[in-house]
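dumping this here so i dont lose it
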């Protein structure tokens, strides 16, 4: 059926208005928030007490929203758990939840607060957006009643979801996303029956949204980029840093580069849980980021991004990740290989015994190749490592990893243990691997957990190379591969053995 003329006219007008407002660039903001936590309890507090705590956090978030808007930001992302924290049983979080409607209802809570059930949190977030003419992204809890007609309905008669919401500059609810890949400790929440791929259009590109642990899995994260072609990903997170590969700033910037999208990551700040690390990332590297384990301060970050990074001249062509590595002759001798654990995964290592050289180490079908030259070798041990297998601690996911890595001490048994500082400087490096997956995320981490934007690149043949002499000592240079199709394999009970 053809739409009526008035409807058609409205649709054309709306599209034309969006096009007229379209911009080649936009100003993004993220806020790392030191969350004000409730007292630990398994017993629910009163709704008034729950709202009082949430308002304390929203007071801080509103200050960040106002500052971002004054500095010209078009959108601001705030962290996962940023409104109430994470210390909850299923029962204890209930007073903090609201019923969040589907955005199709076309609702501005700021101007219509009584249209649905009481929603003071949504009302306040909506007013933050409306009063400051800025998109506001926040994380909160959604509740949905269910009954025995639904065989999956929890025994307490409701679903509880870890939920991201987005309000546009008029205060309208334009996106709602229920987190699909819950972390182990999120016993207070349910996951939706099917993963939700949530997108929305703006004058500065197509946006998608997901939360924290979602980034390690195919749905919805990869689907948003590869199938739905979003330009920018919004990423509220409560990320606990794990060296050497999974610090927030390191992995999130690598994901943006590997997927070719903008990535706005807002982390909570709680150093007791190693939670810090927020950033505004473009495909070519970090535009700005924050990592601070020394104080309990929040931080507002603001940077300009291309609205359509794939269309920009700097957008690289597709990478054939195994092209170069497959052409390199595999070394016949593995006498110097040894094994070690990195975050519960058994790696194959070989030591960099000389100031420069070419090395290969292999595990299963993955061979990793490194060419390197050190400027000044200190009394430190570096290794080339390979892992090709199923990670099964705190989630199950298949990894292929090639890494140049500084060991914690000169004892090879410490290789793979967390290291934050280094002294050895490199003149150059080139790392590649015979990856079986196209999803590879390039990481370079310098001493002090610092990123290296603009100092490295990935060539079309899959080599991760230094563009110039690295300006800081290296902690790790890594190609972090995810082979999603193998996530459901059975665990190999035997670690790799060495001669």
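and the seq i came up w/
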């Amino acid at each position: 059926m053809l739409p009526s003329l008035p409807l058609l006219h409205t649709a054309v007008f709306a599209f034309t208005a969006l096009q007229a407002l379209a911009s080649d660039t936009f100003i993004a903001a993220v806020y790392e928030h030191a969350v004000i936590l409730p007292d630990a309890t398994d017993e629910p507090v009163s709704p008034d007490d729950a709202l009082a705590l949430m308002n304390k956090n929203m007071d801080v978030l509103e200050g960040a929203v106002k500052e971002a808007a004054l500095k010209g930001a078009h959108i601001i992302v705030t962290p996962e758990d940023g409104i109430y924290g994470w210390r909850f049983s299923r029962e204890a979080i209930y007073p903090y939840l609201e019923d969040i409607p589907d955005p199709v209802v076309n609702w501005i809570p700021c101007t219509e607060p009584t249209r649905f059930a009481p929603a003071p949190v949504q009302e306040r977030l909506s007013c933050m957006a409306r009063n400051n003419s800025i998109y506001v992204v926040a994380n909160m809890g959604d509740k949905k009643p269910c009954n025995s007609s639904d065989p999956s309905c929890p025994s307490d008669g409701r679903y509880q979801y870890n939920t991201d919401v987005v309000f546009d500059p008029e205060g309208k609810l334009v996106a709602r996303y229920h987190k699909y890949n819950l972390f182990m400790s999120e016993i207070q929440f349910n996951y939706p029956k099917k993963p939700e791929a949530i997108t929305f259009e703006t004058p500065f590109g197509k946006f998608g949204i997901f939360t924290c642990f979602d980034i390690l899995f195919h749905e919805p994260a990869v689907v948003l980029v590869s199938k739905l072609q979003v330009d920018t990903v919004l990423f509220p997170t409560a990320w606990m840093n794990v060296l050497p590969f999974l610090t927030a700033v390191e992995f999130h910037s690598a994901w943006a580069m590997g997927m070719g999208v903008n990535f706005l990551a807002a982390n909570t700040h709680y150093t007791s849980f190693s939670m810090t690390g927020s950033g505004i990332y473009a495909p070519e590297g970090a535009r700005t980021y924050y990592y601070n384990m020394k104080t309990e301060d929040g931080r507002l970050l603001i940077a300009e991004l291309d609205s359509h990074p794939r269309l920009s001249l700097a957008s690289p062509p597709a990478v054939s990740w195994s092209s170069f590595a497959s052409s390199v002759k595999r070394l016949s001798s593995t006498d110097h290989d040894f094994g070690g654990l990195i975050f519960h995964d058994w790696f194959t290592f070989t030591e960099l015994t000389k100031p420069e050289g070419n090395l290969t180490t292999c595990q299963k079908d993955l061979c990793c190749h490194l060419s390197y030259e050190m400027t000044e070798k200190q009394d430190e041990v570096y290794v080339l490592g390979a892992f090709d297998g199923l990670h099964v601690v705190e989630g199950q996911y298949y990894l292929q990893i090639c890494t140049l890595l500084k060991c914690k001490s000169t004892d090879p048994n410490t290789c793979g243990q967390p290291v934050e500082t280094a002294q050895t400087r490199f003149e150059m490096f080139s790392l590649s691997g015979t990856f079986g997956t196209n999803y590879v995320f390039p990481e370079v981490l310098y001493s002090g957990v610092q990123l290296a934007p603009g100092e490295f690149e990935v060539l079309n043949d899959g080599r991760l190379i230094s563009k110039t002499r690295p300006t800081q000592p290296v902690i790790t240079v890594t190609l972090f591969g995810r082979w999603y199709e193998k996530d459901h394999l059975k665990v190999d009970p035997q670690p790799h053995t060495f001669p």
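Helices lie at 5-21, 47-70, 120-132, 218-226, 248-259, 323-327.
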